[in-house]
Amino acid sequence: MQTTGSMLVTEKMVELTGVKLQTQAFGDPAGAPILLIMGVMSSMLWWPERFCEELAARGRYVIRYDQRDTGLSTHYAPGEPGYSFDDLSEDAIAVLDGYGIEAAHLVGMSMGGFVAQEAALRHPRRVLTLTLISTSPIGIDGLPSSTGAYNEHSAAAEHIDWSDLEAIADFMRRDSAMLAGTRHPHDAEAASALIARDMGRATSFVSATNHFMLLSGDKAATVHASNIKAPVLAIHGTADPLFPIEHGEAFTRVVPKADLHRIAGGGHEIHDRDIDEMVRIIADHTRPSPNR
Fold first, then answer.
1. Which helix (H) or strand (E) holds 152?
2. 198 backbone dihedrals φ, ψ, rounded to 5°
3. Is residue 220 over pLDDT 50?
4. Which CATH superfamily hosts domain 2-285?
5. How far is Cα 112 from Cα 116, in angstroms, rounded to an integer?
6. From CA 217, how far away is CA 223, in angstroms rounded?
7. Positive or negative: CA dihedral 89, 93, 99, 101
8. Band of pLDDT at residue 3, cut at 50, 70 and 90
9. Rounded (10°) angle between helices 111-122 and 85-98
10. What one-character-per-residue DSSP string does 239-278 give?
11. What's the pTM value of the predicted model, to 2 decimals?
12. Which of 16, 18, 133, 161 is 20 to 30 Å from 146 at the Cα level?
């Protein structure tokens, strides 16, 4: 247990069969629970502490966690993930169980948005709302691919020695710059420091590459965003090079109860200068409603 200013911060290792998930909670457990789910190869550290603290300061009980193969959670041999994408969605529910939470607001970023959507489809009674940041509705075809520049950058990853931590770090620094939007200058120094902190903390950072194997699989036809019952808030940068803005706009067409908040010039990132805006709209979206 620790405090950040007057903010209570606690850590807990949630255990399920053969798996341990490192978690951290901000704020008063009596507040409305929000579970944060981060994207590919990214531990919970990629949810900025200020983002978590500001949400908690608005009366939310904010939980972030390391998904499998990231941070301090269970790792698997590189190239041999002992789990499926379905397991990741079940992990989110297991974290809620570990905290004794019946239902929560889920906030997913990028791949974490896919995990959040699937958790909502598999366990609709456990999900109060979804906030989906820089992601895409699952099961929807025909949306624009990543920009040409980003695709070219991604193709270079095939030539990286993924057992070489420094090579991985260099790629991630370049990736962070490629994912930045046009609204604010990219803070290369801050990005480099976060990458170093994440890599230094991880039990086996190379294992995080297992996430790419999960993303290459096909989902069943029944896993479709149009079946989501929870209210959805999509937050999407208009300059996102990985998932162009059309991906965010698609939620309002296919999900029965969905709204879109555009971040003008925003990229595929949670930029420090956008945190206040994002926290405000998430707090509004997760405000208790008599209809929920």
1. helix 148-155
2. -65, -45
3. no
4. Alpha/Beta hydrolase fold, catalytic domain (3.40.50.1820)
5. 6
6. 13
7. positive
8. low
9. 70
10. T-SSS-HHHHHHHHHHSSSEEEEEETT--SS--GGGHHHH
11. 0.95
12. 161
